[in-house]
Structure formats: C-alpha cells, structure tokens
Amino acid sequence: MNTATTVPAAHTGALAGVRIIEMGQLIAGPFCGKTLGDFGAEVIKIEAPGSGDPLRNWRLLQDGTSVWWQVQSRNKRSIALDLRSAEGQEIARKLIGEADVLIENFRPGTLEGWGLGWDDLRERNPGLVMLRISGYGQTGPYRDLPGFGVIGEAMGGLRHLTGEPGRVPVRVGVSIGDTLAALHGAIGVLTALYHRKVNGGQGQVIDVALHEAVFNVMESLIPEYSAFGAVRDAAGSALPGIAPSNAYACTDGYVLVAGNGDSIFRRLMDTIGRPDLASAPDLQSNAGRVARVQELDAAIGDWTRTRPMAEVLAVLGAAKVPAGKVYTAKDIHEDPHYRARDMILAQQTRDGHTVDVPGIVPKLSGTPGSIRSSAPRLGDDTDAVLREAGLTDTQIAVLREKGIVA
After folding, report:
1. Are 154 and 297 members of one domain?
2. In a shared domain, residues 108 and 175
3. Are 179 and 73 part of one and the same domain?
4. 268 touches 297 (CB < 8 A)
5. Residue 238 belongs to a domain
6. What's the confidence (pLDDT) of residue 61?
7. Residue 116 has pLDDT above 50, yes or no
8. Pair (362, 316) in one structural domain
9. Tens digit of each residue's pLDDT (9 = 90 or more) over 244-272
C-alpha cells in the first residue's frame, strides 16, 4: 500500500513561499485551497469558533469527523476566528495583509460588510490576489441570490443533459459544479500570481461564478443553438452526435465502448463479427454512423450481451478498441493502475487513524505535490498563527476569553 508522503511543512513544492488565507466553507473555495496546498502553498484556513467548516460533519464520520474532511483539508492550518467581531476582523486584515492570496466563497457583499472588501484589502496589500467564488458572480442582476453548486449545474446547462431521455434530470453523483469552480479559481490564482511577478507586483480580483464554471465546459452547446437552433437534450449513456459510443450490457454488468474513430470503428466491427458494417461505404465517417447509430448500438449490444465483462474488455483491448467497465469505489481501490500511479495514498489522521485518500493531480516531474500534513482539528493552529502575526500570549489569552478565537 502506498503511503502519503510526509515532508517538512515549509519550502517544498512548486508553490512554496506562497501564503494563502482561506475563508469560506464546504466545497468550492476549500477545494481550490486544497489543490494549491498540495503543491506547496501555505494555506491558513479561517473557521468560525465552535462550529468550524460544516464539511467536518458531512457524510460518513470517523470519531466524529468526516473522512471527506481528511481529503479537503490536508496541507492546511486551522485558525478559529470570529469574523463577525471587530477584533476578529482586524486580525483577519493583519493576516491578509501579509498573504499572497485570499480565497473566499461567501455571498457577494459579505466581506464588504465586515470591512474586508477588495478596496480595503488592496490598500493594505497592493499585491494581494483575491479569489471570489460565488453562485452568480460579483456583478449582474442575480449577484445577491443564494447559489450552491447544484444550482450552478442547472443554470450552466449541465443538469438538462444528465439522465435518460424523457426522465427527470439527475445529479452526476459528485459536487461537480463546486469542483469546476474551484479548478477555474486555481487557474485564475496561478495566472494572477504570474502576472504579479512579471508586471510590477500588482494584485487583482478573480471573479468565479459557479454557473459560469459549468457553462465553460459545455462544449458546442451554444454554437449549435446559435447556428441551427438545436437544443441538445439528455442522451443517457450515449455520446450525442458521435457514434458508436455507449454503455453496453454484459452478463455481469456494463462496459463503455468508444468505437467512434474511423479506423477504430472498423476494428470494432471486425472484432464483433460484423465485417459487413466495417466495410459499409456510408459508415466510413462519423456522419454516416450517426445516421445508423441505433443499428450499430444493437450490433454491439448483441455481441456484449452474451459475454462477461472480463472477456469483452480483453477482446476489445487486444483489438485496440477503447473500452472500460464502470468502476465502483471498490474497483478503484483494488485497481493496480491506480496504485502504480500513487493515486491511492494511505494518510494518517490527527486522531490516529489511517484512511486511504485520492492522490495528487496533476503529476509534475520536477516539483511533484505532496501531503505535508493531515487535516487539522478546529483551531489546531490558532496560537501559532497569531504568534506569527505578532500577538503575544497575553493578547491571545484575552481574545480566547472573549470567544473571538478558539
């Protein structure tokens, strides 16, 4: 079993020396912080005293803490700070004043109400890069509406395409809207840091809306409507307009087969015993195959239906036809390819458990990411972070007595 790399907390990774203050909670902002932290950035997460990030209590818990938390908050330090208090806001200003990046995913206007808006922060720290993730962005008629990832998926056009034709649109199974926003945010942060480096040290705001992050990956959805008035609809497991590519039943489950390349299609048809389709003149290009997609799907399904998945995958693999089974968590956990590429790592929690977690993506040859520290308990690093900010033990004790820090 591969074990998560444990290395000193400072001066490792491509982003070593970059200090990030992470505000906000749950998924979008924290996933961005986690992504940057994996590559060496120092991430200081500000949480509310007493409750902390709600993700600590989401889904399955181990000794009262979500195992999801162990992934989302590795390589971070936790400071419990009451941002609704004037003293807490002043401490936040001090921390942000010494940071390179601020990540926040509150509803627009929240930070301004605390005196922590962009105009206030850049006056103290002109080089600050501020990532703001919200449901609808910082401008526009919807900016003040509450927005979660699922709403972003719906508005971005994704939810209309998920599921079987004519049935209720379904969730894709993970918080894809939040994650897409986080990844767009990470791209924005890295771009802004590079610009700051080569253009005089000035920071800027990165405005990421959940629905826009989803919309950005919707391929030809709008051009098709603009050019032809075509509204793409749900297509189940098929790949609309590209054939053959679908899920096909075997005796013990489903396999996905992507036979939509011209030469791949011919190899696929020969492999399943349909040379007539392999050589048909009208099937030598995608347009002709799309016109006969139901016939092609039926031919492939007739061949897979009488065979187990292992046989189907072995035969198609030998013919160099892309195919794969639909993996469960158990399949991923036991797969040797995942293990060989360090995509399943054993991580030690601060409560003394060992839990397997996803590895680090992408893989850099010279400065690979690493897990330098496990996810913190609430306020684990409050005293240390405040001391680094110049507060004395007496001042910290007074703040704790007031409930401003914990």
Report:
1. no
2. yes
3. yes
4. no
5. no
6. 96
7. yes
8. no
9. 999 999 999 999 999 999 999 999 999 99
Question: Are 123 and 23 part of one and the same domain?
Answer: yes
Domain of 320: which CATH number?
Answer: 3.30.1540.10
Tell me the average pLDDT across 79-108. Answer: 97
Token reading at 321: 């036809």
Question: Does residue 194 fall inside a structural domain?
Answer: yes
Query: Do 87 and 186 lie in a common domain?
Result: yes
User: In 3D, which of 375, 333, 381, 380 has the Cα closest to residue 65?
Assistant: 375
Three-state helix/strand/coil letters over 339-380? HHCCCEEEEECCCCCEEEEECCCCCCCCCCCCCCCCCCCCCC
**Rounded distance between C-alpha atoms, residue 34 and residue 242, angstroms:** 36
Per annotation, catalytic residue among 178, 252, 335, 342: 178
Whether the CB-CB separation of 31 and 179 falls below 8 Å is answered with: yes
Instruction: Say if CB 304 and CB 315 are below 8 A apart.
Output: no
Alpha carbons 180 and 31: distance in angstroms, whole number: 10
pLDDT-based confidence at 1, cuts 50/70/90? very low
With cut-offs at 50, 70 and 90, classify the pLDDT of residue 12: confident
Single pTM value for the model: 0.93
Q: Which domain holds residue 266?
A: 245-328
**What is the distance in angstroms between the CA of the first residue and the CA of the last residue of the chain?**
37
Please state the domain count of the chain: 2
Known catalytic membership, residue 119:
no
**Single-letter amino acid, residue 73:** S
267, 299, 328 — which closes off a domain? 328
